[in-house]
Amino acid sequence: MTDDRDRFWDLSDLIPKKKTAPLHPFSHTVSFADVKPGSKGEPDSIEPIDGTLTFPELPEQRRESVSYVPEKNRLITGVTVTRTLGGYRFYEEFRRDATVFSTLPGSPCDYVPFYSSMPQYAHLDPRQKSYYLYFRETVAKKKRVRCDESYLRLYIYEIINLSDKIPPAEGVVRLITLWRLYRERFPGLNMQLAGWIADYCLVHRLSCPLDELRPIMDTVMNATDFKEFYLGEAAEDADGGLGALLSALSDYSFASGKYAAGENAALFSEHIPASLLPVVRRLLSEEKTTRDGTVKRTRRAFLGALCSYFAKYEITVEYRSFSGSLSLRHRVTAAVKYAENRLRGILAVRSRLAVSDLEGWAKAEIDRYFDRLAEKMKLERQTRERPAYEALYDAEDRTISFSGADEIERASWENARILVPEDEVSATVPAPPASEPPQKTVGNGEDTFLTNEQTEFLAALLAGDRARLARAAERAGTSVDGMVETVNERASEVFGDVVIESTGDGYTVIGDYSEEVAQWTKSV
User: Fold this and answer.
1) Which of 373, 404, 432 is the last residue of a domain?
2) What angle do CA 378, 256, 346 make, to 5 degrees?
3) How far apart, in whole angstroms, are the C-alpha atoms of residue 120 and residue 153?
4) Does one domain contain both 288 and 368?
5) 223, 193 in Cβ contact below 8 A?
6) Among 315, 306, 303, which residue's Cα sits nearest to residue 158?
7) What is the pLDDT of the chain when averaged over all its residues?
């Protein structure tokens, strides 16, 4: 009874039985049979030859490498481009289609959406093909038209894979034109294009196309991880590329200074890079001759792009890294500050930047440029015609006349006599209040704007006496840091600039103002 009840709940008989596939006749063996050449029998009549597993012969492969040193790039010391030649055929159908499409003209047509994770010509329907050709024709004219990212990628892959049909010098311009037109619409392509354009130029031994890249240099610098390629040739270009190079090499940004704004912005952006052109050239040449800070980097070209076997390369680059040479950054920073000081002098700005350890030859190169600029600006001021409207702002020419002053005083007393009776004049006209004697300097007898403690503090700074410095701050009821802040604020209000700057181990008087400060503390 109990067994019958158990069988009642046993559902195994109700479950459909799985059909077991028959074993392959050779599945139980380790070896496989090959087919005799020319055998016309049925599959069941295949006769084994030797019963061994055979593989097709691998195509013979060989690696070809070409090495060279870029002539203009002052940071790259060597490039090796390696290509593997053999019988493999990756994306050969795409390359054949690209060869055909590259010669087809385009004509205006309506926009057709297109999406593909790895776009190829085989993915296009007839309407999409027509729109792709129209899109390509429009980009050739450097005009923007509505498109999807897949259209852009397809055109990029076409340029990369057809270096034998599209001259590389023309191909890199097409890539940059695409980037300039659509970098804001498709920012996700920025990093890839920055790498692919560098690869394209290195593979085909092209110089960095600074003329085409200059309008988007900020985008390039933010997108690339290989700044040395784009900026290594900027030392040859004073028209924009050098400015980006200085931003990358210098710890001080001249363009963001308080005197580089407004009407002076154009002067700073033009003359500071131009004055530093010969200096940066020499510094980079000296850095290139040493091995310190050299980085060796190997990468596959066009990583992430659709490439036929024809366009597969490996690139090895040796270059001077920006972050690998602290001495180069220090020297370029000092040169930038020195150039700005010279320009400030021409613009009659009294404050100066502290410059240390700049070689004499670099100062001479910068001085030579700004001496010519100062003379040129002086001649321009002398020969420039004065606009007529400026005469309206001239003050009247009134010569001081003592006789006229006496006449005004007599007339004043006459009016007072008429308006006020004689017996009330003495009562109504109060005696002039006694004025407080003006404060005198602590040292040289002239009017000053500093207190005794502040003057003592500056004297201690000049003497390098730290104990005296602390005592002067203590007498003023503050710390040394507080005293520095107070003195600089007072100097900015009256003198026009701060006079104390911080150093690695304390404070010091700015060198350009040491004579003025010494005069203020002369009698202390």
Assistant:
1) 373
2) 15
3) 9
4) yes
5) yes
6) 306
7) 80
